[in-house]
Amino acid sequence: MLSTSLFAMLFITVCIVSLVSGILVMQSDRTSRINRAFFALVICLIIWTLGLTVSTVAPNLNIAIAGQRISAFGWVGIYVILVLFVLLLTGRKLHRTCYPLLFIPSLLMILVYGLPSNLYDYSLVFTRFGWSSSSVDTFWDYAFYAYFSGYTLLGLYLVAAWRTETEKTAKKQILFSLLVAFLVGTLTDVLLPAFGLELPQLAPIILTIPVVVISQVLRSRNPQVVGLGAPSRYTTIFILVALYVFISVLQTRLSADSELVAALQLEESTFRGIITQLQMFISIYLVLRAKKTGVIATLLLNGANLVSSILFLIRTNSPTPIPGIISYIGVLLVIYLIRVFEQRSEWYISHIDTQRSELEQSQNKLYNMAFYDSLTRLPNRDYFIDHVNQTIAKHSHGKQVIGILFLDFDSFKSINDTAGHATGDLVLSKIAEVMAAVLDKDDIIARFGGDEFLMEVQRQKETDILLVTKAIMQALKRPIVIDSEEYFLPASIGVSLYPNDGPDAQTLIMNADIAMYAAKAKGKNQVAYCTEEMKAQTTKRLRLTNSLYRALDRNELFIEYQPQICTETRKVCGFEALLRWKNPDYGIVLPADFIPLAEQTGLIRPIGLFVLKEACKQLVFFNQTYQEALVMSINLSLVQLRDAHIVEKVRAILAETGVDSTYLQIEVTESSNFLGEPLLLQRLIELKQLGISLAIDDFGTGHSSFSRLRTYPIDQLKIDIEFVQGITTGSKKDMALIKSIIQTAKNLGIEVLAEGVETEEQVQYLQQNGCDKLQGYYFSKPLKVEDIAGSGLLTPWVNNQA
Predict the structure, then answer these.
(1) pLDDT greater than 90 at residue 778
(2) What are the pLDDT digits (tens) for 170-221?
(3) Which residues fall within 8 angstroms of residue 512, CB to CB, at 6 or more apart?
(4) FRET label pair with 579: which of 157, 266, 474, 727, CA 20 to 30 Å apart?
(5) How far is CA 492 from CA 24, 66, 516, 800, in A?
(6) Do the strands 130-133 and 631-635 form a parallel or antiparallel pair, or are they unpaired?
(7) Whole-angstrom Cα distance, residue 120 to residue 110?
(8) Which residues contact 625 (CB under 8 A, 6 or more apart)?
(9) Percent helix, strand, coil in the chain (nearest 5)?
(10) pLDDT 10s digits, 633-665
């Protein structure tokens, strides 16, 4: 009967579609307990459907009953496994004693319906749809109604009570599909047959809906798995599989005297060939249309037909199925080749996509590395320069004022030193956010490097930029809090304006930097605007620095000698060697201007050795020419003392010049670095061991410490000019301090020299209080060597006079 064959084909189609769904879910994640439970659900549905297929097309009652008993294992299992699946899906857990209780009704249903236990007699009648149950309404029928209704409603309740934020759509889909399947299945398999309406069991076909829906939901949980594009694709698969099954059933019932063959006026072999080609077309279309899903379905269909044809060949020993066998094998080979080609194409496409993605990521990474700071995520210097130049080009003829702010924190190093660099990095990130919040959306802030930041500000007037700097300074007064610790970051800001302070970004940044250092020089924690005077000073400083590199080679450096007078005799007892620089552009450059430059550039090392060597030569000449036992004082900077080889270099000069080291004195200016660098003490001790005497210059100012008098091997203190000038002004404090310094030095056995002596009054006071030596313009200004000979300050040897 056509209707019997039709429903048999539908049942087989349900089996194939369900099996495909289960396999795809397992492929997405074989380790998932939820996926395994779903696959068990699919197996139960297949068993149920296969049993009904056997029962529907059974030639007699006994086989039909056997089919019903087989299907019982499927429908009994499907309801209990549905509950277990929903428990796993929703994350609910039962007490371990509750799980066996779930299976007790199932085992009872198997005993009644699945096993030949004589507890239930199947009342089957043959209808136009095949063998089907007639309504008897026994106790066990009502038990069955209670079983499937109870378990289905429990599953629906668990899904409805599922609390999920991420899978709300999935919850609705599953709940709706299960509810529809339950209502429609109850209507077709329970209610309508109870009113005498002849219908086959449609529940397995209806259950395909929730199976497909749940399959989609489970596969979508794995982002690496490509899901089915749309629900319509499942419909296409279902229709094509049903068509394939229909053709296959038609082929099995085809004979030479078939009415269909006669109606089409075709040979049986020709008609079988057409059917085989249709099957091949459907198979290839499924593979191309549905990809992995189609491959699985096609393998199942053609594999089943191949096995069926081989069995038919063995059973009948007829050559009829041979063309079909060859065709099915050919289809399987074609499927394999298509799949291999698709996989290779997918690999190439995936590889290209991966390379494109990696290239994009590399480009983004390189762009960020090139133009953004990794710590603060702010633009870096290169980005800032480019942006400023673009802004200048855009507003070169506009009325807006473009201001460049160069900000440097005054005490950030102390945070790194005390709290660590990790905390310092956090503070920088936070403070960057604070400053960015003050600026407008069109302004730019960038990290220049270290604790320095650049800002580009566009305003209508210069006074508006002043308001921005005030807002930044006000914001920086609030502390940054890290781990309950407060960190205050005062800053100095330099401002340059376009076009007054430069035509491009580089020049504007340079001038803002100049202004920032001017702000620091004024006392820090303030704002300074770039001026022409600042630019001129910086230009001079740069030119002097460049010229200083060749000053020695060009013989621009020379030494003058200022006499040192013995207080008691008022005779010259020594000289201080003072370096001078005659620059061709700026004339005589003061030591206060070029000595710091020499220290910053490291040129003080060769220059200092030049001074030492020349002074030693001159001291040898003086002692050979004049009768006075003269001491030569030479200044040595801290930069020179940090040189690990300074002692060897001094020893070499002493040996080269032949000077008596007892007449040589090294002067060192007081500094806070004395306390922070213990090696300096070792250097002084080593110099002292060479026979050289040591003097502390400018004592009483800066970082004077009486503990240093006890620790360091000091031979002489030089009282600073500030205190000496206080004698003339009548400052009792200065005079008291001078007296105290002299007295302390005398008690420690240290000689005292007063600098900057300019009046007789000063001489008298210093002499009365026991000062050993004097130096200043009252006696003589610094003199060139040739001027000393004619000054009459020294007494030549008689032979030299002659």
Answers:
(1) yes
(2) 888 888 988 888 888 888 877 777 777 777 778 888 888 888 888 888 888 7
(3) 404, 405, 406, 454, 494, 495, 496, 501, 530
(4) 727
(5) 67, 95, 6, 62
(6) unpaired
(7) 11
(8) 794, 796, 797, 800
(9) 60, 15, 25
(10) 999 988 888 888 999 999 999 999 999 999 999
Q: Looking at this protein, which amino acid is placed at residue 324? A: G
Q: How many CB atoms lie within 10 A of CB 752?
A: 24
- DSSP element (H, E) containing 498: strand 491-498
Helix boundaries (H) for 420-574 = 421-438, 462-475, 505-521, 532-548
Q: How far apart are CA 330 and CA 281, in angstroms?
A: 12
Cis peptide before 782 (omega within 30 of 0): no
Pairing between strand 452-459 and 444-449? antiparallel
Please give the helix or strand (H or E) that residue 697 lies within, else none.
strand 693-699
Q: Which residues contact 594 (CB under 8 A, 6 or more apart)?
A: 544, 548, 581
Q: Which residues pair with 445 in a beta bridge?
A: 455
What is the per-residue pLDDT across 724-763, written as a single tens digit (0 to 9) for each?
998 888 888 889 999 999 999 999 899 999 999 999 999 9
The phi, psi pair for 582, rounded to 5°, reads -105, 100
* Residue of 391, 393, 396, 399 lying closest to 454 (CA atoms): 391
Helix, strand or coil for residue 334?
helix
pTM of the model: 0.53
Mean pLDDT of 292-314: 72
Please say whether the beta carbons of 670 and 684 come within 8 A: no
Phi, psi of 282 (to 5 degrees): -60, -40
Q: Are 376 and 387 contacting, i.e. CB atoms less than 8 angstroms apart?
A: no
DSSP 626: B
Residue type at 450? Answer: G
Give the type of residue at 421. H
